[in-house]
Amino acid sequence: NQCDYKAKLKSNLKRHNLIHLDIRNYCCDRCDFKAKHQSSLKRHNLIHLDSKLYVCYHCGYKAREKSYLKRHIEVNHLNTKNYNCDLCSYKTKLKNRLNQHSLVHSDKRDFICNRCNYRAKFKNTLRRHILTHSNSRKYSCDQCDYKAGQKTNLKRHILTHLNRANRRIES
Hints:
Helices cover 37% and strands 12% of the residues. The strands form 5 sheets. It has a two-stranded antiparallel ribbon with strand order 1-2. A two-stranded antiparallel sheet has the order 3-4.
């Protein structure tokens, strides 16, 4: 078990586990691209078919799939924010961002630390938490001997030096 991924079907789990290995058995016959899955190679092969590309009429961006072009236009060229949160004033252009945002209002915490009983709403929040269990302190303060495991903690610490300096100036 190298990650928290869960699947209902054993075949899906087997397919997922391939991402942890660097085995790329599917090779493109037109370039040096190699893929772990046949479906990835099929999707890749579309780049060799220039006539099949979908082109953005705003900027010339080319997409292999119509849905990619649609998303590109929504994100980059339309100012409409069609997805609104029912619980606050949050608005977004993309449905998946609204779904992600909705977790802010939820008490659901599906990501669980395997070293303590910490629970998180978001996977990246859990990843950041797990760093607190590590002794790795790779961020150093250039004004004292403070070291931090996360860049955000070092930034917060540096503010203490600025606050002290400002207090000295005021008095």
